[in-house]
Amino acid sequence: MQFYEDISVGDVRESDGYTVSKSEIVDFGEKYDPQPFHTDEEAAKDSVFGGLVASGWQTAAICMRLNVETSEDIATQAGVGVDNLRWHLPLQPGDTLRLRTEITDKRPSDSDPSRGYLSTRHEGLNQDDELVISYEATAMIRRKTDG
User: Fold this and answer.
1) DSSP assignment letter at 8
2) Is this prediction's pTM over 0.90?
3) At what angle do helices 22-32 and 56-70 cross, to 10 degrees?
4) Overall average pLDDT of the 28-46 stretch
5) Quick one: pLDDT band at residue 119, thresholds 50, 70, 90?
6) Does residue 54 surpass a pLDDT of 50?
7) Per-residue pLDDT at 146
8) Four-residue CA torsion sign, 64, 66, 67, 72
9) For the chain, what is the radius of gyration of the CA atoms?
10) How far is CA 6 from CA 9, 19, 44, 64, 103, in A?
11) What is the 3-state secondary structure (H, E, C) of 79-126?
C-alpha cells in the first residue's frame, strides 16, 4: 500500500485502455444524457459531431474507473473535488480511452495528522494519443502512522 509519504510530486501513472462500444454509448445516453447525438445514430449524423458520440459524463465516468484501477494500491480515503473539467474531443464508438495521471502537488492536512491531500492532473487520451478530456482533482490520502 502506498501512503501519502510514498508519493512524490511529478509521479505519473498510466492506465490500460478501455474501448467504448456503440451499445454502451446508447445505453448511457438513454439513461443519463438523452440527447440525440448520444442515443440515435441516425439523428446524430445531423449533429455538430456528425455521428454518435459518448456523453462527456460517460467519458468522465470511464476515466474514474481507469483512475481507480491504476490507484488501487494508494491509501485513498476520499475524493475532495474536481476542477477545470474540459472535453476536448468526443469519444466515439470503438475509441479506446486511457488515463494519464500526474501528481502536481501534495500537502499534509492542517486538521488531521492521519491524512494528507494529493492534487492531480488527469488526461484522457484516445488511441491516437489525442486529448479527449482533462481535469484536475484533489484526493484525501492516509498517512503512515507509528505502530
Assistant:
1) -
2) yes
3) 110
4) 97
5) very high
6) yes
7) 53
8) positive
9) 18
10) 10, 32, 47, 22, 12
11) EEEEEEEEECCCCCCCCEEEEEEEEEEEEECCCCCCEEEEEEEEEEEC
Kind and range of the H or E element at 56? helix 56-70
Please state, for a pLDDT cut of 90, what percent of the chain lies above it. Answer: 98
14: left (phi over 0), alpha (psi -120 to 50) or beta: beta
At residue 3 the predicted structure's pLDDT band, cuts being 50, 70 and 90, is very high
Q: What dihedral angle (degrees, nearest 10) is formed by the CA atoms of 103, 1, 126, 37?
A: -100
Q: To 5 degrees, how large is the angle CA 131–CA 87–CA 47?
A: 110
Q: Residue range 116-128: average pLDDT?
A: 98
User: Residue 118 in contact with residue 106, Cβ under 8 Å?
Assistant: yes
Percentage of the chain modeled with pLDDT above 70: 99
Neighbouring-strand partners of residue 101 = 13, 122
The grid coordinates of residue 16 equal: 490500460
140 bridge partner residues: 78, 117
Residue in the structure block whose three cell numbers are 507509528: 146
